[in-house]
Amino acid sequence: MISASASDNVVVLDRDGTIVIDRGYLADPDRLEFMPGAQEALRWMWERGYRLVVITNQSGVGRGLFSVDHVEAVNARLHAMVEEAGAKLTKIYFCPHAPEANCACRKPNLALMEQAATELKFDPCNSVVVGDKESDVEFGRCAGARTILISSTTLRTSGRSAASLIVPTLLDAARSITRTAGPLL
Fold first, then answer.
1. pTM (predicted TM-score)
2. Among all residues, which ones are annotated catalytic?
3. For FRET with 130, which of 27, 109, 143, 145 sits at 20 to 30 Å CA-CA?
């Protein structure tokens, strides 16, 4: 069973491909659209006392495709959309650097997790990291967190991930996180 500690109850989420549809380098808030089931998933976790934290790589800034202001506008729209869905994001953290910058904040590096843990006062080892890429899984494992990979049926059945759990949707992840008894999905 995957369950966060009662004292922490923090779920760290990737943004694109996990909460919202991955549209490549997203700079336009009007193009934000929830992944199927994401609204219900966020509300499900929020109503059960989980703090929802987003940590995302946004290399479009470092690649010169858009500005930090664009990322902040997208993130502000995401905050509003999540509130309209009946939940709340505690905070969104993002790395603006291109991969070749070799910065400490780009996932799977831990600078943003450490910043979030310090600012929000939680132990990453008691959190759950949810994402749609193996780099999200590596990020969570490096932090000592349990990890959930959102992936296709093919990957779920192949067992080729280091994730604690592989599920098809964020809603499945949410239900696994909040489950108090019974087998994993």
1. 0.90
2. 14, 16
3. 27
